[in-house]
Amino acid sequence: MSIKISSALRLLGLIGATMPLAGCQTFGIGGSSSQIISIDNAQVSPEAAAVIAEDLVGSLAEVVGPGTGTVVLKPDDSAFAVALEKSLRAWGYAVAIDQKVDDASAIPVAFIIDSFEGSVLARLSTATVDLGRAYALTETGATPTSPLSVLQRA
């Protein structure tokens, strides 16, 4: 088995094994938005952040539906947080930054961007779904290097 295939399989195994556990830490019992934590450890460039955010928000819109509610984010000035907010608005979502939203259609969203073996792992989480994918950073942004991982919770 080639090194690239072996690394890709290891990466997919890691994503598959950690997604269910990581989702438990992202949201409190019953999906309480008071415990949402977003982390950008990779500190990607604004160009890469825009590509990754657009890819994940497009996938989120396929699962949740475009513009179906108000997305609640914690304040963050990282390149990915800025790109995520812009992409969510472009897809028709209302975005509330660190506000309590009493609307039943509120969608608390958290993200994690981290580096792993030369790739960037990105995860977007809501109370009902986690989306994850690995990306390779390029001069013009980022390119997906793994299939989209989708974990839906009941």
Structural write-up:
With 154 residues, the protein is α/β, with parallel strands linked by helices. It has one domain (3-152). 36% of the residues lie in helices and 29% in strands. The protein is built from three helices and nine strands. It has helices spanning 3-26, 46-64, 79-90; strands spanning 39-40, 70-73, 94-97, 107-108, 110-116, 119-125, 129-138, 141-144, 149-152. Strands 1, 5, 6, 7, 8 and 9 form a six-stranded mixed sheet that branches. A three-stranded parallel sheet has the order 3-2-4, covered by helices on one side. The protein is globular, with a radius of gyration of 15 Å. The N and C termini lie far apart (37 Å). The relative contact order is 0.22.
Q: Quick one: overall form?
A: globular
Structural class: alpha/beta
Order of helices and strands: HEHEHEEEEEEE
Radius of gyration: 15 Å
Tell me, rounded to a whole number, the average pLDDT: 80
Q: Percent of residues in helical segments?
A: 25-40%
Largest sheet: 6 strands, mixed
Low-confidence stretches: 20-35
- Supply the number of helical segments: 3
By DSSP, the count of extended strands is 9
Number of domains: 1
Please give the alpha-carbon distance between the first and last residues.
Answer: 37 Å
User: How much β-strand is present in the residues?
Assistant: 25-35%
